[in-house]
From TrEMBL, chain A:
Lineage: Bacteria, Bacillati, Actinomycetota, Actinomycetes, Kitasatosporales
Keywords from the named record: ATP-binding, Cytoplasm, Glutamine amidotransferase, Hydrolase, Ligase, Nucleotide-binding, Purine biosynthesis
Function per UniProt: Part of the phosphoribosylformylglycinamidine synthase complex involved in the purines biosynthetic pathway. Catalyzes the ATP-dependent conversion of formylglycinamide ribonucleotide (FGAR) and glutamine to yield formylglycinamidine ribonucleotide (FGAM) and glutamate. The FGAM synthase complex is composed of three subunits. PurQ produces an ammonia molecule by converting glutamine to glutamate. PurL transfers the ammonia molecule to FGAR to form FGAM in an ATP-dependent manner.
Active site: C87 (nucleophile), H196, E198
EC assignment: 6.3.5.3, 3.5.1.2
Localization terms from the record: Cytoplasm
Subunit structure: Part of the FGAM synthase complex composed of 1 PurL, 1 PurQ and 2 PurS subunits.
Organism whose genome encodes this protein: Streptomyces aurantiacus JA 4570
UniProt KW Transferase keyword: no
UniProt-recorded name of the protein: Phosphoribosylformylglycinamidine synthase subunit PurQ
GO biological process terms, semicolon-separated: 'de novo' IMP biosynthetic process
From TrEMBL, chain B:
This enzyme's EC code(s): 6.3.5.3
Protein name: Phosphoribosylformylglycinamidine synthase subunit PurS
PANTHER family: PHOSPHORIBOSYLFORMYLGLYCINAMIDINE SYNTHASE SUBUNIT PURS
Catalytic reaction(s) noted: N(2)-formyl-N(1)-(5-phospho-beta-D-ribosyl)glycinamide + L-glutamine + ATP + H2O = 2-formamido-N(1)-(5-O-phospho-beta-D-ribosyl)acetamidine + L-glutamate + ADP + phosphate + H(+)
Pfam families given in the database record: PurS
Encoding gene, per UniProt annotation: purS
Length: 227, 92
């Protein structure tokens, strides 16, 4: 049996289908999860995909964070279940405080959609084990609220503990502090990033590369290896 | 019914590009002398029943956990004068 990876759909989620597909391309089973349903259907891990859940009303991720499914996700994440938040999913994770900091409007105020070069800073998370530390990857980035902020003390802590998981390369697309594109929690099971690995798992689409597939093969190995 | 207002503002150290964009547009529109603009959110809550200490404590909790993200924002809770009393500062 392969691993079961849940993909949450909120009202306004856009990338749930691509994420399910990426999970299947990696060889795992994709399990759709519904925002109003507390039941996680005994999945081994959860992905919170991109989009504009609840219309980004109040703040991106602020209302989704209180949805029934998130109660279970928060409990399970604290107990060690791997959770990946992509784009809006990352915003949800900061709103839950499973990850520190917050996301704000891009410093140039424009929606951006581009292929973005990143450096994978750590492979000691559940979602990045298949990358080499320092590996450069290129995956799509598309958002308007992508500017990562946290206070200096939090930023220093993240750096010191090796919890900056991804950094923007060549250019900082949104004013994120210290070029941070994604971070991990201390345990390494909860990871969030703004760019979209699920759009770069097959050569036909996205960047024309498969640089994002490693997220999904990493978690599969992590889960299957743990059995 | 009483009204409670919650004002939410980005913390002073957080860059506010939307406020900056508004500020930069002002001279072009003929509004001089504004050196800085910060943009925030105002929530007007119509409260059933009396706005006593317990009600205010709940609203404070609501603001802290939901209306504001205290990682990036500060908030102020204010009880508004009832409609039949004259406001302290007229805006007519």
């Amino acid at each position: 049996m392969t691993a079961r990876i849940g993909v949450v759909t909120f009202p306004g989620t856009l990338d749930d289908r691509d994420t399910q597909r990426a999970v299947r391309v990696a060889g795992a089973e994709a399990v759709p999860l519904w925002h109003r349903d507390k039941d996680l259907k005994q999945v081994d891990a959860v992905v919170l995909p991109g989009g504009f859940s609840y219309g980004d009303y109040l703040r991106a991720g602020a209302i989704s964070r209180f949805s029934p499914v998130m109660e279970s996700v928060i409990d399970q994440a604290k107990a060690g279940m791997p959770v990946l938040g992509i784009c809006n999913g990352f915003q949800v994770l900061t709103e839950t405080h499973l990850l520190p900091g917050a996301m704000l409007r891009n410093n140039h105020l424009h929606f951006i959609c581009r292929d973005q070069k990143l450096r994978v800073e750590t492979n000691s998370t559940a979602w990045t084990a298949d990358y080499e530390p320092g590996q450069e990857i290129s995956i799509p980035l598309k958002n308007i609220d992508g500017r990562y902020v946290a206070d200096e003390r939090t930023l220093d802590m993240l750096e010191a503990e090796g919890r900056v998981a991804f950094r923007y390369l060549d250019m900082n697309p949104n004013g994120s502090l210290r070029d941070i594109a994604g971070i991990t929690n201390a345990a390494g099971n909860v990871v969030g990033l703004m760019p979209h690995p699920e759009h770069a798992v097959e050569p036909l689409i996205g960047t024309g590369r498969t640089d994002g597939l490693g997220f999904f093969t990493s978690i599969l190995k992590n889960l299957v290896g743990a059995r | 019914m009483a009204r409670v207002v919650v004002d939410v503002m980005l913390k002073p150290e957080i860059l506010d590009p939307q406020g900056q964009a508004v500020q930069r547009a002002l001279p072009r529109l003929g509004f001089q002398g504004i050196s800085d603009v910060r943009q925030g959110k105002r929530f007007e809550l119509e409260v059933d029943g009396p706005v006593d200490e317990a009600a205010l404590a709940r609203i404070h909790e609501m603001a802290e956990t939901f209306l504001a993200n205290t990682v990036i924002e500060d908030f102020v809770v204010k009880v508004e004068e009832s409609e039949d009393s004259e406001p302290a500062v007229g805006a007519k």
